[in-house]
Design brief:
2 copies of one chain form a homodimer.
Chain A lengths: L2 H31 L7 H23 L5 H25 L1
Helix pairs in contact in A: 1-2, 1-3, 2-3
Amino acid sequence: MSVEAQTEHKEKAYALLKADAERIRKLIEVQMDNLTLPQCPLYEEVLDTQMFGLSREIDFAIRLNLIDEETGKQILSELERKLSAFHEAAIGSK
Amino acid sequence: MSVEAQTEHKEKAYALLKADAERIRKLIEVQMDNLTLPQCPLYEEVLDTQMFGLSREIDFAIRLNLIDEETGKQILSELERKLSAFHEAAIGSK
């Protein structure tokens, strides 16, 4: 496979994963805004399910050599960091 | 991207998804073999989680033009068919 074709495909895969991470961040933050209690079990379940789905996509992309493992870990940890910061703020303001 | 490079990548993506579907089939069937009650909630939860993970991978592959939507649907429905057949047999034999 030509190098530039590979790069093109890798960039698209990376952009898709970042967009999915951003979609999950927004989904969870909207949920938290509407929750009286941020510890609500449903919120945790939605979060776990979405994070599991994203981790399956990332694992799939890694196995297809579309992203490397380190990049995959970064996408997940960045999303986790943003969500826990938002969660702290949400608890602080309740 | 050269046609043969695209085909190579698509075949690899398809093979990965089929292998993941097979891995889930085996995981669920082993669970069912060890269950006294096939309706056990944990079994349903594991099944739902695994199917959700596979559907996220398939959706990701479709968006990357690695497989088409019809192929994605086939992989999921074939796995669902196998699992429900096994589930019927498991209930029948309890």
